[in-house]
Structures are given as C-alpha cells and as structure tokens.
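Technical annex, item 7. During the second reporting period the consortium partners agreed on a shared format for inverse folding records so that results from different sites could be compared directly. Each record opens with the tokenized structure and is followed by the designed sequence. A conforming record, contributed by the partner at site C, is shown below for reference.
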C-alpha cells in the first residue's frame, strides 16, 4: 500500500513537470511568432504595414496612415484599427524568411520585409 502511494506521488510530480514544460514552451512559441512579424512589410513600396514590439502598428497607404493594435493567436493575426471608421481585420498568416502572406475575407496578400 505504501509503495503504491509513492508510485502515484512520483507520477503526479512527473505529470506536473510535463504540464509546466508544455506551458513554458507554448509561451515561448507565441512570443517567437510576434518577434518574427515585428518590422515593416510592403507590397509595392506604397502600402506598408508596420508592426511594433508593443503590439501596436501603423498601416500606410496612399490615402493616409492608420494606427492599430494587433494580436496573434492560433496562427491568426487580428488587427484592431483605432479609427472606428476603419474596418478591423482578421488574417491567417504565414512568414517565410522575408515574405509575409496574409489571407483574409478580401483575398490573399504578399508582403516583403523592408530592410
């Protein structure tokens, strides 16, 4: 009986450690996703998305500039424009080297990192 309690205790400790390691790795992966998107991205030199470390950004287009907040969750990029007249956006995104691909309800867009 005493041996069984010791085995159960050891298994519970191992399970706790495994959960802790998983949570730490999940947080690191989420941070890395945000780290990759930080910077300026352009399609044509006129349309520019700028993503800052503090999860704010700026969309520059020929008609003006639009401030936004953003977040990344589950391979989705959510953009919340501060100007309520601007339509907020949700994209499935991918980054490969210096190429950012955004897929949303209005189509698919490719951006290159400004250096």
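Designed sequence (site C submission):
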């Amino acid at each position: 009986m005493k041996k069984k309690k010791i085995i159960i205790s050891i298994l519970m400790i191992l399970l706790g450690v495994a959960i802790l390691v998983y949570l730490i790795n999940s947080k690191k992966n989420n941070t890395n996703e945000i780290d990759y998107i930080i910077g300026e991205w352009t399609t044509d030199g006129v349309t520019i998305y700028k993503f800052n470390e503090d999860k704010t950004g700026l969309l520059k287009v020929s008609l003006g500039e639009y401030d936004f907040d953003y977040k990344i969750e589950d391979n989705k990029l959510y953009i919340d424009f501060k100007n309520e007249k601007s339509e907020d956006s949700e994209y499935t995104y991918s980054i490969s080297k210096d190429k950012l691909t955004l897929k949303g309800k209005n189509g698919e867009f490719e951006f290159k990192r400004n250096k």
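The two ends are 66 Å apart (CA to CA). The mean pLDDT is 85. All partners now use this format for quarterly exchanges.
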